[in-house]
Predict the structure.
Amino acid sequence: MPAPLLNTSTKDLRDAFTFNVTTAHALTAAAVPLMLEHSGGGSIINITSTMARLSARGFAAYGTAKAALAQYTRLAALDLAPRIRVNAIAPGSILTSALEIVASNDALRDPMEKATPLRRLGDPLDIAAAAVYLASQAGSFLTGKTLEVDGGLTYRTSISPSPICEDSGMPIRVAQVGTGNVGGHALTELITNPAFELTGVWVSSEAKAGKDAAELAGLDTPTGIKATNDLDAVLATKPECAVYTAMADNRLMEALEDYRRILAAGVNVVGSGPVFLQYPWQVIPDELISPLQAAAEAGQASLYVNGIDPGFANDLLPLALAAPARASSRSAAWRSSTTTPTTARP
Amino acid sequence: MILDRFRLDDRVAVVTGAGRGLGAAMALAFAEAGADVVIAARTQSQLDEMAEQIRATGRRAHVVVADLAHPEETAKLAAGAIEAFGKLDIVVTTSAAPCLRRC
């Protein structure tokens, strides 16, 4: 487990119920008369799981059994009140030996931490503390409850990590650098999408300087943000991210220097070009890469160049290649030039 | 004193799945809070190790090797608490966590 639904046999389902629900009931039924006779009452705690409430692929047997155990907890609480309290703890992702494989593997652990609003995996002591609370007089007014000790995991609808814009609910502060073919579209999105807050706009031409960002994007309602030729003035607006779509291919050194300055200012960069920055290592000389890496490390910022750079490789070449291969719906050339990320992460 | 309300002095707890993981953490926490603990799991060696840790807190531990898939072993476990410590106040049912590998 976890297992695909159609590979989940009725025996798997029965086993999940046996291990989770039947054993809890058997122990409850055996213990309660003894608790009443020898102690006059007591507290029962069932361990369920966030999987009783979350949806994730492959957990049909386990998740359904844990959901049943949570309902069993509520029903038993009613049946056994007032002398016996019955509660449950639903642990989230806790670093026990069952998750050893996750603890030692960043690729597995990172998404689990990112999916957890409190940004860490749980410690067994987090669960132990909840158990002491439920078992002791401190929790003596609780019965039928499930304590979700999960770092906030169950406030998500799925355990898959969600996009960064859903992270805080706060718009991401973004500056636009360049307002040409690609930049114009990006600028429109930055102005109209509530996930973003436009902080500044850099333009190359004197003619565009001083114009409102809305005008440059072809929108009617002014934003109050005027375009400037001064990159430092844009960085002074303290964006979290700069979308860099200024022409890079015929002003390569200038573009790399712009990237360096933006990264050094601690601002993340999403750029359209030059395309070789998708994966620069062993493609361009190290002396061109290292200033960017140093600046990214100094500024704790990242650089992502997606290569969405209209031109020969992105429109003409795919069409030329697609013509003889009529059955192909997507060309490899298009994919390779648009989907490989470049990051210069510290 | 509010912290007194969290104490479990002289209570008796049964914790299943107590050989390792969450069950082990809860069993030890109960002992630290003042309870005597009956620990149950399938693997004797892990339980013996846990019993040592519980006794190191100054509380008593009672080991029951049991596979709770069998109802008669469950009954034996509950009765074991009375035989060992004369009462039963707390029961924790912990079952296997979902392993990412086949288990």
The mean pLDDT of chain A is 84.
